[in-house]
Amino acid sequence: MTLYSKIIGTGSYLPEQRVTNQALTEQLAAKGIETSDEWISSRSGISARHYAAPEQNSSDLAVIAAQRALEMAQLQPNDIDLIIVASSTPDFFGSFPSTACIVQRKLGMTNTSAAVDVQAVCSGFVYAMASADSFIKSGMHKNVLVIGSEVFSRILNFEDRTTCVLFGDGAGAVVMSASEEPGVLACKLHADGRHSDILSVPGNVAGGAVAGSAFLYMDGQAVFKLAVTVLEKVAHEALDAAGMTSSQIDWLIPHQANIRIMNGTAKKLGLALDKMVVTVDQHGNTSAASIPLALDTAVRDGRVKKGDVVMMEGVGGGFTWGAVLARM
Known about the structure:
Elements: E1 4-13, E2 17-20, H1 21-29, H2 37-44, E3 48-51, H3 58-73, E4 82-86, H4 99-106, E5 114-118, H5 124-137, E6 143-151, H6 161-164, E7 169-179, E8 184-191, E9 199-200, E10 204-206, E11 209-211, E12 217-218, H7 220-242, E13 251-254, H8 259-268, H9 280-283, H10 290-300, E14 309-316, E15 320-327
Parallel strand pairs: 4-5, 4-6, 13-14
Antiparallel strand pairs: 1-7, 2-3, 6-7, 8-15, 9-12, 10-11, 14-15
């Protein structure tokens, strides 16, 4: 019997605090930093984003998203035999113990299932899905909980209007299970470390203190230029691997970073814009959480249905990029 991996449940969570462009503009104005709703929305498509409460960590957001995905999948936490969490904002400075282990504990799991974090920034969720797909197809794991969770508001420099207006917090999750019918059809992953300096948090630990900056840095123009090029290419690579064409895609769910990049990708693939799931306007860029957040939104509002072919793709710091083509 040929084993496939299939998405059987989705879930997501956004923190309670919703911050509109106008509210953020007023906060920045109090610091003498000028921006506007029009400036933000025209450049990114973003109208609002959510920020986690001070007591909320990535694991807290992840657990709620995971519980919702498990409920849809009709599974209990101990039915999961592998947890993969994609995050650039883990619970602990130094990244250990892993956020996945903390999620396991908070879910009340006692089955000693494997748990691991994946770090590929905004591409993290597609990297995590591709990893889960391989584990399932190998027969090593049966039910994998894949989560993207971020509290990017913690690493934003609110003195830099070019970056602080773009990002938000949130979490999304899927349950992927072994299946006799095709689910994930193809995965393609890439990285090019020669561009590691265009999107980063360049600080490091030295003598117990942070040396350099602990805030996110982005060369927006360089990221934009690379993103529009690699997203089209990796989508075609995944389609070629599956023996399919872009006309067979029912829904495009790209990383929700910038509406201009997203629209450009859809057009290059020959897809109508109404075939693309867009949540960047309300969520901002939630990094590894953006694709599962958008997927869950579209599943729960009825757009994405069983049998639909979905192209999920992202780009992130590293520079990393990848795509997962799946039949729901």
